[in-house]
Amino acid sequence: MCGIAGAVDLARGVDRAEVEPMVETMSCRGPDDAGLWLSEGERPRAAMGHRRLAVVDVPGGRQPMTLEHGGETLLTLVFSGEVYNFRELRRELEGRGHAFRTSSDTEVVLVGWLEWGSEVVERLNGMFAFAIWDTRREELFLVRDRMGVKPLYWYPTPEGVLYGSEPKAILAHPRSEAVLDLDGMRELLAHVKTPGHGIYRGLHEVRPGSWVRVRREGVDVHRYWQLEALEHTEDRDATVAHVRELLDDIVDRQLIADVPLCALLSGGLDSSAITALAAQKLRAQDAGPVRSFSVDFVGYEDSFSADPMRDTPDGPYVRELAEHVAADHSAITLSNDDLTDPDARAAVLAARDVPVSIGDMDTSLYLLFKAIRGRSTVALSGESADEVFGGYRWFHDADAVAADTFPWMAAARTGPLDLSTSHFAPDLRERLDLPDYVDASYRDALAEVPHVDGVSAQERRMREVCYLHLTRFVQILLDRKDRMSMASGLEVRVPFCDHRLVQYVFNTPWALKTFDGREKSLLRAATRDLLPASIVDRVKSPYPSTQDPGYEKALRTSVADLVSDRDAPVRELVDVDALRTAIDAPQDGPSIDTDRAKLESVLQIDAWLRRYRPTLAL
């Protein structure tokens, strides 16, 4: 994995001194190497920067990578991510007469662009975000993978564009501005992840499955992939077999690395299936046991109390799966001091660039990845299985499904995504009008859903629900996973986001997705032979969150300090009386993440205002 950043200016040219700080902000994403390329001429039109995390072809995959002919540079590429089918593509390109200098997937993309132009992206299987400069045409392409696993942002300027893997790269350039307007604040709070919205005014995110072309004629955007509505013709047994065949191929491809690799293990169906598949394939290759990691909290298992989202603690299931597949397992156990550590919380904000933290669940994920990075460079994750196979509880909540809004919003009355803004100042709440913003976003998303004819009303609605998750909700989680992992230079791969699997399961009727009366029926059936019965039958449990009352007490103390500090920048946005009421409310029993979400939000917004000093246009 890597970080990219750069600029194109087709009028005044680019300045190396202005681009170098952009590249430096990506050092966390690429700690192994750095490079900066400028096009020729007294006023270079393009600058392309790269920070590298070496995973494949460690000695030969340096970037920016150029392709030359007759002493002339034709193409220059900066690439972040992995292409899992690069070996097949390389053989095809060699059959067409192309020669290669390295064994990297980056060079395959570069040579493939020379051969097929932008159509090469339709041949790539992987997670990627890259920029390619065509010297002959003076055109820049910004390209993102189909599911948006890897991020890429762009910021138009009068005669070109600034771009980077994260907003911080773009904000490091003097021609950008960190302005948060009402739409930006709405996007921060609404939990809808509008495709292409970059939070800061003027900042755009390359939409998953799209490329952006920048040239003298202007900027144009093209979607090269999106979910299609196709008739499903296979019966249950064939469907289960097809899912397993895809998973076998996907995990096999994603085990390719020239550096240490591991699996993230929570003891749930998703991560256990990936860990077990990886263990099976590594044994077949005589490559030793799979290495796995989990996160836990001091005293969590002993004092666990069921909450609205979690029925059981992860620990017993993690240990059972690790023993079942003979994994080399490590549990990373965190204390309240770890979770409230100012440096760790600051690192989360620096990784996010905006105050969208979900509190201890972000901090613990960051600390987990930081600990893993000392022993592995690549990790396989079970992320996105719930969106693909229909795993969340609200998929199976008739009221949430029938609600005329995003299902996770309807379920949020008792779940983690609460739209309440009661902690904000009344006039700001009125200007935000979040319900209208969410409704408009919902209508836009529904208008995109592809349908097949001749299905029941329930099947039609469940196709909509699945589409909303695969294009909106999953982006929230993928963004979190990428930022927390790359803050420590750890590459996290997401097998369930393979576009072949996503497209196939999307078109599987809901009756097949739930054929055993449970969530994720297809995944459970496809991997049952690999897993202990207890894990096969375990009810969905989200990423863990501490229940220690001491953690919430520390949050309340921190917010109380802010309320008392008349110079705290967040005071102009919040309802001080409402916060005092929240701070003074009785604290009985275990602390629940949903109950303390407003406290986490206030602390993160204040820290963001202090660090980023954005202009608020609210």
Kindly describe this structure.
The chain has 25 helices and 19 strands. By secondary structure, the protein is α/β, with parallel strands linked by helices. The longest helix has 30 residues, at 457-486. It has a six-stranded antiparallel beta sheet. Strands 4-5-6-7-12-13 form a six-stranded antiparallel beta sheet.
For this entry, give a set of tags.
618 residues; 19 strands; six-stranded antiparallel sheet
Give the structural class: alpha/beta
Please report the number of helical segments.
Answer: 25
In this structure, how is the largest beta sheet organized?
6 strands, antiparallel
- Tell the overall outline: globular
Q: How many strands in all?
A: 19
Pathway: Amino-acid biosynthesis; L-asparagine biosynthesis; L-asparagine from L-aspartate (L-Gln route): step 1/1
Catalytic activity: L-aspartate + L-glutamine + ATP + H2O = L-asparagine + L-glutamate + AMP + diphosphate + H(+)
Enzyme class: ligase
Pfam family, one: GATase_7
Write the layout of secondary structure elements.
Elements: E1 2-9, H1 16-24, E2 33-38, E3 46-52, E4 65-69, E5 72-83, H2 86-95, H3 105-116, E6 126-134, E7 139-144, E8 153-157, E9 160-164, H4 167-171, E10 179-181, H5 182-190, E11 204-205, E12 210-215, E13 218-223, H6 236-254, E14 261-264, H7 269-284, E15 291-297, H8 300-303, H9 315-324, E16 328-334, H10 336-339, H11 342-352, H12 360-373, E17 378-380, H13 385-389, H14 398-402, H15 407-411, H16 426-432, H17 434-448, H18 457-486, E18 491-493, H19 499-506, H20 510-513, H21 521-527, H22 533-536, H23 549-564, H24 576-584, H25 597-612, E19 615-617
Parallel strand pairs: 10-19, 14-15, 14-17, 15-16, 17-18
Antiparallel strand pairs: 1-3, 1-9, 2-3, 4-5, 5-6, 6-7, 7-12, 8-9, 8-11, 12-13
Helix pairs in contact: 2-3, 6-7, 6-21, 11-12, 12-18, 23-24, 23-25
